[in-house]
Amino acid sequence: MPVPTLTSILKRILKQPTAPFHEYHVRDEIEAVLEDCPHVKIKRDGFDNLIVTYKNGKRKSRNAWVLGAHMDHPGFVRQPDLEDDWTFLGGMKPEIVEAGVEAGLRKIKGSIGTWKFPVKIADGQLHAAACDDLVGCSIILSVIWDLASLDVETTFHAVFTRAEEVGFLGAWHVGQKWPFADDAVFVSVETSRPVNGAQIGGGPVVRVGDRLSVFDHAGVDALMRTATDQGIRVQRGLLDAGACEASAIQACGRRAAGVSVLLGNYHNTTDEHEVAPEWVALEDVKSTVALLKALVATRDAGKIVRPMEERVAVRMRDYADFIKAAKKHF
Ligand SMILES: [Zn+2]
To answer: Does residue 330 lie in a domain region?
Structure first.
């Protein structure tokens, strides 16, 4: 069984053209990457999201984890009713899109138009047309393969969703159907624009929330604890320049958290408003794989070591004399 490396997975997934509603090339490649992977079952749900389960033995982590990434990226698609007309779907300024087309940066394949940038891995960086969120998809695939190749006994799930860039349509379907345990925690694996002091190359961001919601406290805590236990450098923070699928899942009444790899040229737009490849630091990608591997393979990752109740009880005892002495003033 040849085990694909992270680099080979990134190259295979990131070179696939994709756009909202046209995620089939990415989907096919994900299925191909997982084809000979032991302990893995793949299903397609009613919205054609991919639902993957890794199950090796009876061992489970305390929480059932559901890692999620989306397979689309802002891009051009053919108008459903006007086959010769193209429309751009996803968040990018129309004048920048237009300038990109005029500069000859649009590449057409079948019903998909993407930005014409190759996948480049050099000097610790990865540049590509669609890091968002094909880097997230690749990270999850790498987590699955690494654990399978080490024959790690655990159970967890992954979802690869459609049509995130037009408003979380695939994630909403997953959140509504929820084919997992009631208390399972969704972990959005995303790329995001660095804000609020977070820095590219500083490690994955354990996201406490996004523009729309704050995330599950125990889920965030489990991610932070795992990072500390494994000695993985992470940045804990609020990335509120955008929203991710964790918000959609949470709005369906499910628990959700998020991990982000920070990226440059978010949605193919430079600070100078030009069309460009997105890029990430490879070290951040590798650390995210390590963090998620440890998260889903550790039995007690979700356990809060010292609950607040216990902390306060200890302090009450420690300060009993102070409380007593101050009593006369009340
Ligand atoms: Zn996006």
So the answer is: no
pLDDT band at 301 (very low <50, low <70, confident <90, very high): low
- Rounded to the nearest angstrom, the distance between the alpha carbon of 132 and the centre of ligand 1 is 5
In a domain, 322, yes or no: no
CATH code of the domain in which 71 resides: 3.40.630.10
pTM beyond 0.85: the answer is yes
Contacts of 266 (CB under 8 A, 6+ apart): 132, 191, 192, 193, 241, 242, 278
* Structural domains counted in the chain: 1
Q: 137: CA distance to ligand 1 center in Å?
A: 13
> Per the domain annotation, does 317 fall within a domain?
no
Helix crossing, 6-14 with 24-34: angle to 10°?
150
At 63, the pLDDT band (50, 70, 90 cuts) reads confident
From the CA of 267, how far away is ligand 1's center (Å)? 6
